[in-house]
Design a protein that fits this description.
Strand content: under 5%
Largest sheet: none
Mean pLDDT: 95
Number of domains: 1
CATH topology: Urease accessory protein UreF
Order of helices and strands: HHHHHHHHHH
Structural class: mainly alpha
CATH class: Mainly Alpha
Number of helices: 10
Number of strands: 0
Shape: globular
Helix content: 55-70%
CATH superfamily: Urease accessory protein UreF
Low-confidence stretches: none
Distance between the termini: 38 Å
């Protein structure tokens, strides 16, 4: 067993208290509008979300960091491209919690440096970068780290959909199984993307996330 495997499982466990259970990243807007209402429709939304927002934003940020990108610059670009306020705040809140947990259980000089940037107001502390900093300091290879991050995101969203739509637990597991292909496609896609692709997210997703701010009744913060 590689030294990082158990640490990576802990880092990606749905019980890790980052607050992921409180965020829908816009799918609750689609529920309210009856676009997402069952297993099939949520599965379609999830495929688009993984193939767009997670690939062109989060996954690229992870890749650029692993390739030696400047942490403060990547954080600033993520902050600028996350146009919906709730999503931008969710990324920073979840990233902040991950940094707090990481410094206690997976301390490293790289993590200390990122926390210093956040405390000095030079970075927001976004979730994908916080995850990448911890994973890289643990010696997790890039593809393993990216697959783990993407599937952890998919898992938390699916768990939230099971509660919100609602769906049965077995339906949630079927969705997760189908999402294996979405995650694999995202990993393959991100290999071929460049800096000009960073933040190229579907406007429909962003509009739904902006509408969520003013939704009359809701379960989630984003």
């Amino acid at each position: 067993m590689n030294d990082y495997q158990l640490a990576l499982q802990q880092l990606c466990d749905s019980a890790l208290p980052t607050g992921a259970f409180a965020h829908s990243f816009g799918f609750e807007t689609y529920i309210e509008r009856r676009v997402v209402f069952d297993e099939e429709s949520f599965g379609r939304w999830l495929t688009v979300f993984v193939g767009q927002q997670l690939t062109y934003s989060d996954a690229l940020a992870v890749r650029f960091l692993y390739e030696g990108g400047d942490l403060a610059e990547l954080d600033a670009h993520l902050n600028a491209q996350l146009l919906p306020r709730e999503v931008r705040e969710a990324s920073a809140k979840m990233g902040g919690r991950l940094l707090e947990i990481g410094v206690e259980v997976f301390p490293s000089p790289e993590l200390d440096a990122y926390i210093s940037l956040v405390r000095e107001g030079q970075a927001a502390g976004h979730q994908p970068l916080a995850f990448a900093v911890v994973a890289r300091s643990l010696g997790v290879p890039f593809e393993a780290a990216l697959a783990a991050y993407l599937f952890a995101s998919v898992t938390s969203l699916t768990q939230n959909a099971v509660r919100a739509i609602p769906l049965g637990q077995n339906a949630g597991q079927r969705i997760l199984r189908k999402a294996h292909d979405d995650v694999a496609a995202a990993i393959e896609c991100v290999r071929h993307l460049g800096w000009d692709d960073f933040g190229a997210v579907s406007p429909g997703l962003e509009i739904s996330q902006m509408r969520h701010e003013r939704q009359r009744a809701r379960m989630f913060m984003s």
